[in-house]
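Forum > Structural Biology > Help requests

Title: Can anyone predict the 3D structure of RNA polymerase sigma-70 factor (ECF subfamily)?

Hi all, first post here. I have the sequence for RNA polymerase sigma-70 factor (ECF subfamily) but no way to get a structure on my laptop. I'd be grateful if someone could post the structure tokens.
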Amino acid sequence: MLVDVRVNDLDKALAACAKGDRMALRSIYDREAGRLIALAERIVQRRELAEEVVQEAFIRIWTHAHQYSPDRGSAHGWIYAIVRNRALNLLRDGKREYTVEDVEALRESEQVDEIMATWQKLDRNSRLYECLAALDETKRRGILMAYVGGYSHGEIAGRLRIPLGTAKSWIRRALSALRGCMA
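Reply #1:
Sure, ran it for you. Structure tokens for RNA polymerase sigma-70 factor (ECF subfamily) below:
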């Protein structure tokens, strides 16, 4: 009868963790962390949250290793269940006040506000101000994002939530209108 040495090693490592052996926890981490992060990422859909889930799971593994019993299931299953439950709890709780995307969106909106403020700072009697004012809001925003903010067409499309081709054609038409107006 063949015994899976890896599974047996996890049993031994958890028993050693229960006795306070930090190297045993380290060996579990070294062996399983990559797969555990992948599991958590499939659930929470974001790498940084998956890493946080796994970190919390390893704290739980360390503090609750004494509760693991080989009679009730495999060490592998016990460890993976902790990660899965932590990931699901994170989704269920939704306690992340500021995620990376939230912070980036806030920065982005501040940048767009600065870009639009640039237009507002133009001399109201200038020809450029009049020509920009003649454009509809979205096209004006696209032009300012491209030429004041330095955004690419793809970035503009993403920020305005429009297809890339639409962004390109709006900017091309708006530039043509600006040229005609300024001439």
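The chain has nine helices and no strands. Residues 5-93 form a domain with the Rna Polymerase Sigma Factor; Chain: A fold (CATH 1.10.1740.10).
Shout if anything looks off.
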